[in-house]
Amino acid sequence: MTSTIYLGFLNGYSPSWAEDLAPRVSQAFSLPTQPIDLELDLDLYYAPERRQYHATLIIARLLRYLPELDSKIVGITSLDLFIPVLTFVFGQSQLDGAAALVSTHRLHSEFYGLPADIDLLFERTVKEVVHELGHAFGLVHCPDYLCVMKASTYVEDVDIKKASLCSECQATLIDRSGKPSHR
Ligand SMILES: [Zn+2]
Ligand SMILES: [Zn+2]
Fold first, then answer.
1. Where are the domains of the chain?
2. What topology is assigned to 5-140 in CATH?
3. Smallest-distance ligand from the CA of 142
4. How many A from CA of 63 to the centre of ligand 1?
5. pLDDT at 179 over 90
6. pLDDT tens per residue across span 41-72
7. What is the pLDDT of residue 1?
8. Rounded-to-integer distance, Cα 166 and Cα 177, Å
9. Of 88, 86, 90, 91, whose CA–CA distance to 74 is shortest?
């Protein structure tokens, strides 16, 4: 059973809504959250030819900050992330693992040439953090387009879905976390 979800804004990233994220994440998984300081040398993960940061490598580094084995850790950054097979990712995580990473870079309205919208940015970030954590809790993509576990290719997809798990994903989560697995 997971004890705590650690939320870390990378390298001093401090958006105005930072404090509001924890209660939303806590509510989604019925688990306590704790802030964690994450200072990483991100230059190591920069791909100059893409001008982006390698999400998988950063996640591998995040694992070293995990305070307890039965906890989860989420890093939040404003830097643009990629994995080699995709142009970009909003976030990335280890399926059934301990670490997840989310980028707000492409969640800003300004990225799409629209006026800044802090409330929208916050809602999008909540959805992506819950989505990536869902994977870390072993959930896979869900066909329900309102479910937070629906895959999002474009930011419009993020806006369509809700910040919460559908009843089926919720049941899977409880099933997986409620009792120790003996498989
Ligand atoms: Zn996903
Ligand atoms: Zn679902």
1. 5-140
2. Collagenase (Catalytic Domain) (3.40.390)
3. 2
4. 19
5. no
6. 999 999 999 999 999 999 999 999 999 999 99
7. 75
8. 16
9. 91
